[in-house]
Amino acid sequence: MTGNKTALILGATGLVGQALVRQLLTDARYSRVICLLRRPMPAAVFDDPDRKLQPMVIDFGQLQDYEGYFTVNHVYCCLGTTLKQAGTKAAFRKVDFEYIHIAAQLTRAQRCDSFVWISSVGANARSKNFYLRVKGELENAIMRMPLLHHATAVRPSLLLGARHATRPLEDLGQKLAPVLRKVLVGKLRKYRPAYASEVAAKMILQQRF
After folding, report:
1. Out of 131, 191, 195, 202, which one is annotated catalytic?
2. NAD(P)-binding domain: which residues (predicted)?
3. 118, 121, 102: which is closest to 110 by C-alpha?
């Protein structure tokens, strides 16, 4: 029997996003899974026997105009890019800070039960590293947002999985992953490379049912 919870996903076509959609479509607690997308998604990407999936193409540059889609129980935000993909620091910040921050605001406006997003291990608003600084600034901005119920950041290290784009450093990490996952224990465990499916499962665990 299918439950009555509804979910909204931003960033459904990314590495973690795809893993998350697959898990939600098989989660009996959810009856509807809405995905906000930049471009149409082929129907064959996901197995959806219960017809829970509702993909919607929107203009993320006008995300605030789509508040109606946030009338759900749980919001999952898997948005993210890289400096190389974005091209400039301003473009990177637009995706990794502005879009996610607006999504949190819309979640609050619709009084959703919870908001979970992907940050990064080492996120720190005072970091000298631009990537980690933006992640830290976003965490501070969201966690200090009044009346936003149950907001949680999931902080993975290197993400493991098949990507379309080539990332030399991450490709090296993929090769070393089996060793790193064995030696990074105790306090170092948070730096372990994580499979996208593991991060997706952790995001679901943070939600309130």
Report:
1. 131
2. 11-134
3. 102
> What does the domain layout of the chain look like in residue ranges?
5-158+196-205
- Specify the residue for token string 């990507």: 163
Ranges of residues in the chain whose predicted pLDDT is under 70 = 1-2, 161-192
> In CATH, what class is 5-158+196-205?
alpha beta
The rounded distance, in Å, linking the Cα atoms of 192 and 178 is 10
Catalytic status, residue 175 = no
* Alpha helices in the chain, H assignment, sequence order: 15-25, 83-86, 89-93, 100-109, 130-143, 168-183, 196-205
Among residues 5, 30, 66, 135, the one annotated as catalytic is 135
For this structure, is 135 an active site residue? yes
Tell me phi and psi for residue 111, to 5 degrees. Answer: 55, 45
Cα–Cα distances (Å) from 206 to 9, 104, 108, 150, 165, in that order, read: 15, 15, 17, 9, 29
| CA 176 and chain centroid, separation | 24
Distance of CA 9 to the CA centre of its chain: 8
